[in-house]
Amino acid sequence: MSQYTHIIDGKPVTSSTTLDVQNPATQKKIAEVPVATKEQLDQAVAAARTALPAWSAKSQDERAQVLEQIAGVLEKNIAEYKHILVSEQGKTLADAEMELGAGVVLLRETAKLRVSDKIVVDNEQMRITERRVPIGVCAGIAPWNFPVALSMMKVGPALLAGNTMVLKPSPFTPLTTLQFGRDIQAVVPPGVINFLSGDDNLGPWITSHPGIDKVSFTGSSETGKRVMASASTGLKRLTLELGGNDPAIVLPDVNVAKIVPELFWAALINNGQTCVAAKRLYIHEKIYDEFRDELVKFAKTVKTGDGTDPQSQLGPVQNLMQYKKVLTFFDDAKANGYKFATGGDVNANPTDGLFIPASFVDNPPEDSKIVREEPFGPIVPLLKWNDEADVIKRANNTTMGLAASVWGKDLEAVERIAKQIEAGVVCMNERNPVTPFSALEYLSSLLPFLKWISRYNFGWAIGDIIAGLTVGLVLVPQSMSYAKIATLAPEYGLYASFVGVSIYCLFATAKDVSIGPVAVMSLQVAAVIKDVQKSHPGVYTGPEIAVGLAFICGMVVLGIGLLRIGRIIEFIPAPAVSGFMTGSAISIAAGQFPGLFGISSRLDTRAATYKVILDTLKNLKYSTKDAAFGVTGLLALYAIKFSFIHLAKRFPCRERLFFFLSIARNAFIIVVLTVAAYLYAHPRKDSEGDYPISVLKTVPRGFKHVGRPRIDTELISALAPHIPVSTIVLLLEHIAIAKCGYKSSIIEQHLINHAIFVAAFGRLNGYKINPNQELIAIGVTNTIGTLFSAYPATGSFSRSALQSKSGVRTPAAGLITGVTVIIALYGLTDAFFWIPNAGLSAIIIHAVVDLVASPAHAFMFWRIAPLEYIIWLAAVLVTIFSSIVGICEDNGIYTSVIASVALLLIRIAIPEGQFLGRVTLVAGDNKQPRDVYVPLSINGSLVNPRVKVEAPADGIIVYRLKESVIFPNSSSVNTALVNYAREHTKRGKDMTNVPLSEQPWNDPGPSRSAQVDETADAKKSVLRAVVLDFSAVAHIDTTGVQNLIDTRKEMERWADQPVEFHFASILSPWVRRALVAGGFGTDDRGRSVPYEAAPVVPLSASQDAGLSDEYVTIAFNDQPSEDDTSKIREDIKSTSSSTATLEAPIVSRSTPYFHLDLCSAVRAAETFV
């Protein structure tokens, strides 16, 4: 049997008295929980009050991040928690999993909220700002019907708003909450949320406690009245979520067979133990009999039983007290002769589980107990009605108007009735969406277009049409060109284009991004096709391989998005991807130059890039007439581009006109080349049907390959080695540009991956995107695209920049682009026959050259971080010089990623630290001096090298750490400190006269015959104190603490006396906690230093109160009230000045060696010395 405890100030706490928890399905004891005492409640409130200043001082983003971490803990443990929840609450496994999932959604959706200041008045006379501030310590009292989800509804808003909390679960269902409370302590600062279990006394103690500022209670209306009365004595803020007697009105035009299951579960969700469940079903008399009979049939198909049984759909009533209350409704119905349509048989003295079958009372009178009161169990009245005004009056005849619903096909009648119902929430043709099962909201969040489509207007449509058509003019020729790179027929590029722009807009949170075929992904597809066909000759066609790759990569990306782990892409840094993209772009361009000159048949364009370049140069003398079309087209593309750039600069008032004319150059050149090819080649067809130049020839009209893709286990096995890199490449262009930026004159750089990529467009255009939703959009797009035989599509940087510049207003612009592609597929395929292949090569070269990092951009990498420039260069060279047979994308991206990860690990494992000295600065008219600490060696730093840096006082070392102190690097910190101490301070004990037998074997000191520079040694002082600047230390682990302990021991052995360790600017309570556990920070003169940071056998230690003169002043306009004074911590010192100030230490008196900043830490070290 698991042991459950309170959680107070981050620590597990037990009580002398315990409470049994029973499984309602068996009525057997399953666990014991501690019963909190008044003293323990005081401790929990005090812990929450102590944690409040630091927690409320955090930004909303920082608090939201903690909520995300809490949600992650809950999500990670759903598999474990659901069994605990079923055993204590009784609900089915499916319902338990749904409740826990709802808790995750509630926390994550809450974490997205932000409360900003509101300017109420802002004029020349005054400015009034409305600001929401934390209330203080909040208490949550959770019910037993949804113990986790309803707790998260309290925890999320309270913590996000900057409050701290005491949470009390129901004594009937405390287990999951207490287990969850213990598990989240690793991510929540101590005291921010405390968990107390208890009996019926704990609730009143909480509501009347003077240290609690707000109470949130969920439970029955009767208990709510007592909570309000108790809280009123202290004028506490109060939130009450109480009972409801919710009506559901069914109109005569409904489809009875369809609506019966909906209303059954609307009434008996969680076995009827739901505040917003339908408690009264008003059925129009025209369909009453039919509805009742269908309901009886359906009820007989629903199994009531133990929640652990997969066949069970309804569980037991949660506790015996509630069971007996529900029995009173059965007794009253039977005593008054009411008829049960189904159910009604209940055991008054259950010996096993507290099971009650689903029961419906057949048309009881309006004044009956079952109609007037809330049973909160599986018994529901069916009621006839025939007059609209009368049924509205009956529905409103309750003091518990929490929720209601109206059902019917006549939407005008439904809305008319709904407007007259007096309830907090009225739903039309659906169950109440605010129940804890609002995971439906999560599902709806997967379709973001639902949030804006209802506001779509003519102004938006104009912008979307212009942008959609503009992108379409570029997309059609580009997509056929990129299909050529992928070694596929041109129609497959059009398929991928249509699906990309059409499906993505339904799931996207970015309006500027355009999805479709891209050059680098096309190159990867070509490599995969070649490799699979080499290993499986004659088994799979190129399109089958490409479509299978799209499906698998799409599912992987979709999974990453749904699991919210898109941040793993952040491990691919900008230089690595820039190098890969640059190398890939050079490879693509090199492979297209033979086609540009009509010499593709004379060389292997899929060989290593350098070989293709050399072979192209060797065979230029064999150029064909295709060069007239290809080279001319390429030169024309650049001529048009640079001409309009020049014109835009010269005539800025017409810049937008020149922009649209410039972006049409691809379509214009293709049209001109196609007409020229037709005029030249059509009359010159030879006897074998060939033409003097290479043309595209037949492009099938419409969607010729729609259907289920061929994906079998053998193909999956063949594709498996290529999935990691293919997925990375799929994401590269769709998340990246935020790390590098872009020029609005179409493109300068084409980099990195989708979630960050769209984030950049969002920031530039004033909206926020959801990176994980973007991954979902890409995943769905590629998965659905396989039905259209589309090969992998992702975000195109060039077309996205173009769409943004064209004035797009919503993601619906993608539909306009999709229509453009359909027009091309169904209306222009005959014309596509005459497109010269050399012209397509020109289009490709013109597009991909912009992907190559410019020299200035590459030099920027060198200026920022030379090692990252080397990684960039390695990625470029490996991508270019790897053979395509080995798949150059794999080699290039793997090289850059592995090198980047290695550099990251080296930076973590070998951190830079600095030994500091003092510089006194003066500034302002008053020349007020202030001390700052800079590196003792300032050569090459940002400090003026002529500035004189004063070394710390004799015997003091000041050291600034630049990384967290964790297991890979902690020994480096130890080495740096110990070596510096040995070099700059003298040994505290003269070892020359110490017998050899007493000298340590590994540190004997100078030999007796050695010449010792006594003058130099005399100038040194004995080490007395070390000051560590922890301003850059976010984490410290057990190994790090142990190395600091070892450092102190080595230094004290060297100095032959105690050495004080002072710590400045500790930012994390967890770092402070770890240091205290290691024996640092406290007033430990005469201490016994522990040998381990986390000893197996606990050691007893005392913490004497030390001295500290670091205070923060809290000023009041008037004399502080008694309430104000009572809320100040015990160590606040009151003054008697006329300003009525209160002073409190800014750091705890129990840790005098922890200091607010570096200056105070050095002063303290000098004082102690």
Please sum up the structure shown.
Belongs to the aldehyde dehydrogenase family. Belongs to the SLC26A/SulP transporter (TC 2.A.53) family. Its EC number is 1.2.1.3. With 1169 residues, this protein is α/β, with parallel strands linked by helices.
Describe what this molecule looks like in 3D.
This protein has 1169 residues and is an alpha/beta fold. The chain folds into 4 domains: 6-241, Aldehyde Dehydrogenase, Chain A, domain 1; 246-439, Aldehyde Dehydrogenase, Chain A, domain 2 (3-Layer(aba) Sandwich); 465-699 and 713-741 and 756-901, no CATH class; 910-990 and 1020-1084 and 1150-1168, Transcription Regulator spoIIAA (2-Layer Sandwich). Helix content is 47%, strand content 12%. The chain has a 7-stranded mixed sheet with strand order 14-15-16-13-12-17-18, sandwiched between helices. The chain has a 6-stranded mixed sheet with strand order 23-22-24-25-26-30, sandwiched between helices. A 5-stranded parallel sheet has the order 9-8-7-10-11, sandwiched between helices. The longest helix is centred in the middle third of the chain and has 28 residues, at 458-485. Pfam families: Aldedh, STAS, Sulfate_transp. High affinity uptake of sulfate into the cell. It is found in: Membrane.
- The number of distinct helices, counting runs of at least 4 residues, comes to 41
Poorly predicted runs: 433-440, 736-764, 883-889, 1086-1144
What is the average of the pLDDT values? 83
Biggest sheet overview: 7 strands, mixed
